[in-house]
Amino acid sequence: MNGQMGSWHGQRGAPGSDQGQGFDGWVPDDVRGKLTRDAPLGRLVWFKSGGAADWLFEPADLDDLTGFLARLDEGTPVMALGLGSNLIVRDGGVPGVVVRLGKPFATVEVRRDSVLECGGGASGILVSSTARDAGIAGLAFLRGIPGTVGGFVRMNGGAYGREVADVLVDCDVVLPGGELVTLPAADLGYSYRHSRLPEGAIVVAARFKGEPGDPAEIGAEMDRIAAAREESQPLRSKTGGSTFKNPPGDKAWRLVDAAGCRGLKVGGAQVSEKHANFLINTGDATSADIETLGEEVRRRVAESQGVTLEWEIQRVGRW
Predict the structure, then answer these.
(1) CA-CA distance, 261 to 250, in Å (whole number)?
(2) Residue 260 backbone dihedrals phi, psi, to 5 degrees
(3) Are residues 205 and 239 in the same domain?
(4) Of the residues 189, 217, 245, the one at which a domain ends
(5) Which terminus, N or C, of the chain has the lesser number of Cβ atoms within 10 Å?
(6) Catalytic: which of 90, 193, 300, 318?
(7) Any catalytic annotation for residue 132?
(8) Distance CA 49, CA 55 (A)
(9) What are 238's strand-pairing partners?
(10) 183 domain residue, yes or no
(11) Is 312 annotated as catalytic?
(12) Which residues of 23-54 are buried (b: 16+ CB within 10 A; e: fewer)?
């Protein structure tokens, strides 16, 4: 899962809609971090496609971020971007401001009682590896989530039978107006790949609780997860991770396969031959190719299997 996937303040349009017409409001430029206008996002997302952000802000630290958002024109669209693993950035780009949490937010520290304090920009691999080294069990599944803390806290990311709701204590969130709040896990309203975090909110830190364990056993479990992902998923392709949510009692990949969509192509986009719930950019796909392919898969599955698949990958920006 991507970074802070879907944390986009504004309308989320259906395919074919025109989502946003650009942003001409005031953006504060007295920041200590990096602020870039018309910043290409394709290189920052796993699909390697998509347009530019009106503004890309990479804050120097938490104070820089909260101060920037507090001074931003009210109503400005805000989207947080992590690793870009579970995200389609549409070809028309993203209106408003995209916030990318860099190294200042990528820390992981061990606290008392098998708790890890993690920055919103820390990767699942870093979190699980730190837990292993500290002898904290119960967090190895994060090794299988290709995203950052901010993203999988927002989306209740999960893998191999566990999800964030099982281990989250609380999280620090910056709201669109710059207010910093701490929310306990119980307030997030978690369900399958969903939370009630408000649009435009940015997860800047989170606490995860595990339990004492043996580092060797934890490491072996992480190795099993890594091997399983390598064997079953097209990790070396330009992809966005799992495309559709698993319907209750079934698997999205099975439904896609049963609908005859494995290997299906639209332009430069293709349903993976290795795992039917992954879309891949074969080299020159546009984001429109990828999203159109996904919608065609949904249509065929609904028509032949009687199930309407829900997108797990977040789609943001203008057509």
Answers:
(1) 17
(2) 75, 25
(3) no
(4) 217
(5) C
(6) 193
(7) no
(8) 17
(9) 281
(10) yes
(11) yes
(12) beeebeeebebebeeebebbebbbbbbbbbbb
Token digits for 108?
């992981």
β-strand partners of 53? 39, 94
**Selected catalytic residue, list 58, 221, 291, 312:** 312
User: Residue 289 sits in which domain range?
Assistant: 235-316
Dihedral through CA 218, CA 132, CA 233, CA 105, nearest 10? 160
> How many domains, in total, are found in the chain?
2
Whether the Cβ atoms of residue 81 and residue 37 lie closer than 8 Å to each other: no
242 noted as active-site residue:
yes
Output the pTM of the full model.
0.88
Task: Mark whether 251 and 159 lie in a shared domain.
Answer: no
Q: What is the residue-wise DSSP string for 111-163?
A: -STTEEEEETT-BHHHHHHHHHHTTEES-GGGGG--SBHHHHHHTT-EETTEE
Spell out where 59-105 has E strands: 78-81, 87-89, 94-100
Sort 67 into a burial class: Cβ within 10 Å, 0-12 / 13-18 / 19+.
Answer: middle
Query: Are residues 277 and 312 part of one domain?
Result: yes
Q: For residue 78, tell me if it sits in a domain.
A: no
**In the predicted structure, residue 28 carries a pLDDT above the cut 90:** no
Q: Which residues face 40 on adjacent strands?
A: 52
One of 7, 85, 195, 242 is an active-site residue; which one? Answer: 242
CA distances in angstroms from 303 to 244, 255, 266, 298, 307, listed in the order given: 16, 11, 19, 9, 8
Lowest mean pLDDT among 6-15, 20-29, 164-173, 273-282: 6-15
Q: Are residues 200 and 109 in the same domain?
A: yes
Domain membership flag for residue 309: yes
Query: Which amino acid appears at position 56 of this protein?
Result: L
Q: What pLDDT, on a 0 to 100 scale, did the predictor assign at position 23?
A: 61
DSSP 160-174: TTEEGGGTEEEEEEE
Structure tokens at 203: 């997860």
Q: Is the pLDDT of residue 287 over 90?
A: yes
CA distance 194 to 68: 27
Q: Are residues 151 and 242 in the same domain?
A: no
